[in-house]
Design brief:
- The chain is α/β, with parallel strands linked by helices.
- The chain folds into two domains: about 220 residues, Isopropylmalate Dehydrogenase (3-Layer(aba) Sandwich); about 110 residues, Rossmann fold.
- The protein has 13 helices and twelve strands.
- The strands form two sheets. A ten-stranded mixed β-sheet has the order 2-1-3-12-11-4-5-10-8-9, sandwiched between helices. A two-stranded antiparallel sheet has the order 6-7.
- β11 and β12 form a beta hairpin.
- The longest helix is centred in the N-terminal third of the chain and has 18 residues.
- The structure holds 3-isopropylmalic acid and manganese (II) ion (MN).
- The site of manganese (II) ion (MN) has 2 residues, from α9.
């Protein structure tokens, strides 16, 4: 791929701020390493509701489908909270995921050693936390029908449907087994098979698939037990595979372990284009305070370089740039600790860009380029 076509969807709240820093890093990497970059922008979420009356337009989805990758900020805000669910900013997200057919959401959780103090876990437990949640993204209660709120016998009834087909489970299962194969060869499948039929099917299908991956050690856990184990013994996890709803919840818990939800990236893959976004929300209260941490968005760029561009070496350049600035002691407000000095999100972004450029011009790279 000589030219990377990326659609940037800043979204709401701090979304545009962190996306701006992520784009700056992407520009630095592509410039330094001789890759063409073509950027486009479109609206999603509340800004799209304000501009176009819908949380995402058909044109924006088409633009996303025809680009190599989509870089997203965040969506949502109090202004749009009272809208009916099918018109809320969050629905724009779901339509985009669906429109791109990205069924696998990868959420790596890794604690940077120098941030062990920012984790709520004791340092000896927090150290060496390093796992990936593989979250199914196109099924479950998020997309199941029937759904809605009905008037029934003078009281209202709310309904959502938890549904998975065997094919959907097998598809995400394969992604997770392959991921485990490339990592520590341990897979934990998380379900609620003791109570829900759909979840018993999940366990069945994942077990069957396990026989095709004899080199991967497969474990099944109930979601409640998994939530507890994440706090008690997070080092036991390598790859976790789970459905859409449980994956949503567990990945926020995982993010807290890593010190701050502002640090974690995600990639949604398996479709016509891939979607990269930090896992945090739009945090409207942080807008304009300089407190938004761009690292989650910047590490999402690293994932883009790895999965879309197929350049894990360049992904490592970005990850190492992040690590270097953290090593130098730079901290955004969320990870600074009370009373400690912190830098703004844009200062953090600029420092990471500078590290990327330094690394690109280091003797090892220059030698390899010859
Ligand atoms: C996430 C978010 C989304 C989700 C919302 C904003 C639709 O919480 O990506 O984790 O629930 O999937
Ligand atoms: Mn979430």
């Amino acid at each position: 791929m000589e030219t990377l076509n990326v659609l940037v969807l800043g979204g709401d709240g701090i979304g545009p701020e962190v996306a701006e820093q992520a784009v700056a890093v992407l520009q630095a990497v592509t410039e330094e390493f001789g890759i063409g970059l073509n950027l486009e922008e479109a609206a999603i979420g509340g800004v799209s509701i304000d501009q176009n009356g819908v949380p995402v337009t058909r044109q924006a989805i088409d633009l996303a489908r025809s680009s190599d990758a989509v870089l997203l900020g965040a969506v949502g805000g109090a202004k749009w909270d009272s809208l009916p669910s099918h018109r809320r900013p969050e629905r724009g997200f779901l339509e985009l995921r669906d429109g791109l057919s990205v069924f696998a959401n990868l959420r790596p959780t890794k604690l940077f050693p120098m941030l062990a103090d920012a984790s709520p876990l004791r340092p000896e437990r927090a150290r060496s936390v390093d796992f990936v949640i593989v979250r199914e993204l196109l099924g479950d209660v998020y997309f199941g029908n029937p759904r809605g709120v009905w008037d029934e016998c003078e009281s209202r009834k709310g309904v959502n449907t938890m549904v998975y087909t065997e094919g959907e489970i097998r598809r995400i299962g394969r992604t997770a087994f392959e991921m485990a194969r490339r990592r520590g060869k341990k897979l934990a499948s998380v379900d609620k098979a003791n109570v829900l039929e759909v979840q018993a099917l999940w366990r069945d299908v994942i077990s069957e698939l396990g026989s095709e991956y004899p080199d991967v050690t497969l474990n099944h856990l109930y979601v409640d037990a998994c939530a507890m184990q994440l706090v008690l013994d997070p080092r036991r996890f390598d790859v976790i595979v789970t459905g859409n709803l449980f994956g949503d919840i567990l990945s926020d818990e995982a993010a807290a372990l890593a010190g701050s939800i502002g640090l974690l990236p995600s990639a949604s893959i398996g479709g016509s284009s891939s979607l990269y976004e930090p896992i945090h929300g739009s945090a409207p209260d942080l807008v304009g305070t300089g407190k938004a941490n761009p690292v989650g968005a910047i590490l999402s760029v690293a994932m883009l370089l790895e999965y879309t561009l197929g350049r894990p070496d360049l992904a490592r350049v970005v990850e190492q740039a992040v690590e270097s600035v953290l090593d130098q002691g730079l901290r955004t407000a969320d990870i600074a600790g009370t009373g400690a000095k912190w830098v703004s999100g844009s200062e953090m972004g600029a420092a990471i860009v500078q590290q990327v450029r330094l690394a690109a011009n280091a003797p090892t790279w220059v030698a390899q380029a010859r």
